[in-house]
C-alpha cells in the first residue's frame, strides 16, 4: 500500500511502518503531500517483505507493534540487508531509558508520540541531509589497519568495506574534518541533527562507532574520551 506516487525534492522513498491504520494513513498522506514517495507496512514482517523487493532512503518505524517490535526489527536490519538506511523510531514510551534502547538498537533518531507531523517532517529532512555524501574533506584517514575515505564515505578494513549506519557515518565525518580536536557533545549532536543534547544517546552512538574502528573498543586507540569536554579522534597506525 502506497501513500503518494511522486518523489520529494530529495528523491526520497520512505518506508512507514506502524500498526495503527489511522496514523499510518495520516502520516502517509501528509508526507505524500510534501512530495515524498511513501510505502507503508503494518508490521515488521510486512516491512521485511517490502525491503526484500524495494529500495528505501529512510524508514519511519513504530516501536510498539504486535509480534516483532520496532526495536527488534531495527537491530536485525543493522546486521542484515539495510545496515546504512536511516531509521527514525516512533513510540509512546520516550523515557530516557527507552530512547537509549532505541539508539543502542541502531536507530538514528527517536520521536515520542503524540507529535506534530511537522516535527516528523523536519526530522526526516535532517536525516536525509545527513545521509547525503559528505562535502569534499581532507584525504583518507588511517585508523590502524582501517582507512576512512570521507570523499567516498567508506571505511575500508582488511576484510573489505565496513558498513556504517547513517549516524555512525555522520559522526566519523565530523571527527575526520577535525582530527586531534576535542568535539563537544553539543557539536556531535549537531552533526547528528539532534535538537536536544542527550549525553547518553551521544555516548551510545560513539560506542557503536568504536566497535567499527577500534581493534578493542574497550581500550580505544583512536577515538578517545576527554572527561568533561567530549571526544577526540587521533588517527594513526
Which characteristics define this entry?
237 residues, alpha/beta, Rossmann fold, Arc Repressor Mutant, subunit A, 2 domains, 4-stranded antiparallel sheet, 8 helices, disordered N terminus
How is the secondary structure organized here?
Blueprint: E1 13-17, H1 21-33, E2 37-41, H2 44-53, E3 58-62, H3 70-78, E4 87-91, H4 96-105, E5 109-112, H5 117-131, E6 141-143, E7 146-149, E8 154-157, E9 160-162, H6 166-177, H7 185-191, H8 199-213, E10 223-226, E11 230-233
Parallel strand pairs: 1-2, 1-3, 3-4, 4-5
Antiparallel strand pairs: 6-7, 7-8, 8-9, 10-11
Helix pairs in contact: 3-4, 4-8, 6-8
Descriptive report:
- It is built from eight helices and eleven strands.
- Strand 8 (154-157) and strand 9 form a beta hairpin.
- 38% of the residues lie in helices and 19% in strands.
- The chain has helices at 21-33, 44-53, 70-78, 96-105, 117-131, 166-177, 185-191, 199-213; strands spanning 13-17, 37-41, 58-62, 87-91, 109-112, 141-143, 146-149, 154-157, 160-162, 223-226, 230-233.
- The chain has two domains: 13-131, Response regulator (Rossmann fold, 3-Layer(aba) Sandwich), CATH 3.40.50.2300; 141-233, Winged helix-like DNA-binding domain superfamily/Winged helix DNA-binding domain (Arc Repressor Mutant, subunit A).
- The termini are far apart.
- The strands form three sheets. A five-stranded parallel β-sheet has the order 2-1-3-4-5, with helices on both faces. The chain has a four-stranded antiparallel β-sheet with strand order 6-7-8-9, with no helix packed on it. A two-stranded antiparallel sheet has the order 10-11.
- The chain has 237 residues and is an alpha/beta fold.
Amino acid at each position: 500500500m502506497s501513500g503518494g506516487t511522486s518523489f520529494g525534492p530529495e528523491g526520497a522513498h520512505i518506508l512507514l511502518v506502524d500498526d495503527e491504520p489511522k496514523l499510518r494513513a495520516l502520516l502517509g498522506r501528509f508526507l505524500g503531500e510534501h512530495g515524498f514517495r511513501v510505502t507503508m507496512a503494518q508490521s515488521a514482517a510486512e516491512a521485511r517483505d517490502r525491503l526484500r523487493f524495494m529500495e528505501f532512503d529512510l524508514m519511519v518505524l513504530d516501536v510498539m507493534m504486535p509480534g516483532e517490535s520496532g526495536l527488534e526489527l531495527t537491530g536485525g536490519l543493522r546486521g542484515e540487508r539495510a545496515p546504512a538506511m536511516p531509521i527514525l523510531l516512533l513510540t509512546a514510551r520516550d523515557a530516557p531509558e527507552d530512547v537509549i534502547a532505541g539508539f543502542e538498537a541502531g536507530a538514528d533518531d527517536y520521536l515520542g508520540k503524540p507529535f506534530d507531523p511537522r516535527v516528523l517532517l523536519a526530522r526526516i529532512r535532517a536525516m536525509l541531509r545527513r545521509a547525503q555524501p559528505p562535502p569534499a574533506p581532507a584525504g583518507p584517514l588511517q585508523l590502524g589497519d582501517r582507512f576512512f575515505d570521507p570523499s567516498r564515505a567508506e571505511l575500508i578494513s582488511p576484510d573489505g568495506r565496513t558498513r556504517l549506519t547513517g549516524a555512525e557515518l555522520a559522526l566519523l565525518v565530523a571527527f575526520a574534518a577535525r582530527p586531534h580536536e576535542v568535539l563537544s557533545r553539543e557539536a556531535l549532536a549537531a552533526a547528528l541533527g539532534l535538537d536536544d543534547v542527550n549525553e547518553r544517546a551521544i555516548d551510545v552512538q560513539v560506542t557503536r562507532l568504536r566497535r567499527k574502528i577500534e581493534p578493542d573498543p574497550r581500550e580505544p586507540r583512536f577515538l578517545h574520551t576527554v572527561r568533561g569536554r567530549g571526544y577526540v579522534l587521533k588517527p594513526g597506525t
